[in-house]
Amino acid sequence: MILVSSCLMGFSCRYDGLSKCRPELVDAVRRIAVPVCPEVLGGLSVPRPPSEIRGGDGREVWSGLARVVNVCGEDVTEAYLTGARIALSIGAQAGCTRAILKARSPACGSGAVYDGTFSARLRPGDGVFASLLKAHGLKVYTEDEIREALLSLDG
After folding, report:
1. Reduced 3-state DSSP string for 79-105
2. Phi first, then psi: what are they for 122, rounded to 5°?
3. Which pLDDT tens digit goes with each residue over 63-102?
């Protein structure tokens, strides 16, 4: 089984109320995918104001050194932490060892996230959920790495 960001599977759960459906991913993993949206699982609405991590990345959020703040200035850190814990639990119960997540997201980004200024600038790092998955030994890919992720399912 593989955890997959729900928005990549066609669910309209992104902050803007849309999906980022990747048909090639849906076709390849529909029988083994466990779709999760940690932001929605944490209690955030659809649609919702966009959020970014201020002061670091997901690892710093877990250690209390950074916060997740939406464009309106509201601190939504607890929703991100709660949703990540719930999504990890769902993945663990399903036996997931890998994840394909939405790139650059404050929850799901892996390798790069927006820098917290809402200026479309990226910084190195992981989102809150991606960093939790990595800390628990799961291999995390983004939708930019679908080919590599799908090849890993064969091995």
Report:
1. HHHHHHHHHHHHHHHHCCCEEEECCEC
2. -100, 155
3. 999 999 999 999 999 999 999 999 999 999 999 999 999 9
Q: How many CB atoms lie within 10 A of CB 137?
A: 7
Residue 83 near residue 133 (C-beta atoms within 8 A): no
Instruction: Say if residue 17 is exposed, middle or buried (CB neighbours under 10 Å; 0-12, 13-18, 19+).
Output: exposed
Are the C-beta atoms of residues 87 and 129 closer than 8 Å to each other?
Answer: yes
Q: How many whole angstroms from its chain centre is CA 116?
A: 16
95, two tokens: 């036996």
pTM over the 0.85 mark: yes
Give the pairing type, strands 67-70 and 51-54: antiparallel
Q: How many CB atoms lie within 10 A of CB 69?
A: 20
The pair phi, psi for residue 92, each rounded to 5°, is -65, -45
Tokens found for residue 151: 């090849």
Q: Residue type at 114?
A: Y
